[in-house]
Amino acid sequence: MSGTAAWAATPERGNAAVLRLMTRIALGLGWPVAHALLHPITLFFLATSPAAQKRTARRYLGRALGRPAGWRDLWRLYFCFASTMLDRVFLLTGRTRGYHVQVEGLEILRDAAARGQGMVVLGAHMGSFEALRAVGGAGAPVEVRMMMHTANAGAADALFDSLDPTRAAAVIPLGRPSAMLAAREALERGGVVGILADRAVSGDRMLPAEFLGAPATLPGGPMTLAAILRAPVVLGFGLWLGPRRYLLRFEPFAEAIDLPRDRREAALREWLGRYAERVGEMCRAHPYNWFNFYDFWGEEP
User: Fold this and answer.
1) Which of 96, 125, 161, 168 is 20 to 30 A removed from 152 (C-alpha atoms)?
2) Which residues cross the membrane (predicted)?
3) Pairing state of beta strands 192-196 and 206-211?
4) Assign residue 144 a region: left if phi > 0, alpha if psi is -120 to 50, beta otherwise?
């Protein structure tokens, strides 16, 4: 099964009522109590996860860690994901006290903002990319819009939208005729347009790329979007370092992504290879921050 098909076939865990209850508990009792509850919650979800999901997670961790992944490694991966979900509840409601955010490369965005130049930020499903927008003064000094597919949005996205009404307004839904116009307008205002480039939706064209030392496929759509927007591109990662501790990292990627017509396919593969190489390096440095819980390499029957 291809990576795209595997992701589309993976059901969302939890339901709206449970998520709302957990949110009320977290906001009512505070972060320390909610964080303590993450331990049994993580154990429950790890114990009840489908065997195939745990196999694929182990394979990813083995590649990122450079050794066989054990039960403790799986726990850390699931716990890191649960921690970022909990933190979203507090960050999206403005409860940022106690959070420590280290920012590297913010001068890239500031310099572009001073020139009135918009930028595209390519991210991945690592840590909390949303921390860029949610952590007030520590975040970006400019408008931030996210281009993403909203048709797959589940109960968690609906909950987060209800916690911060501005969140939905900051999303540019892909697949609509107005998407490119909205992105261009944001860039012309000197804003940042974010795209998560490591996951595809059904219908996206997939291209081969080497990722963590093994052949995988990555969607060509996000990189093509970045090329069409004709803006400088940086890589952006919001990495969870520990309880209420994050690293926001921005680094240059391209002055502009060029896909010449006479060698479009080859150029696209080159850019995807560069992206996959850097995301792979980040996975090795922060192995428990990558949250693609499906058969990314297409190894399951």
Assistant:
1) 96
2) 29-52
3) unpaired
4) beta
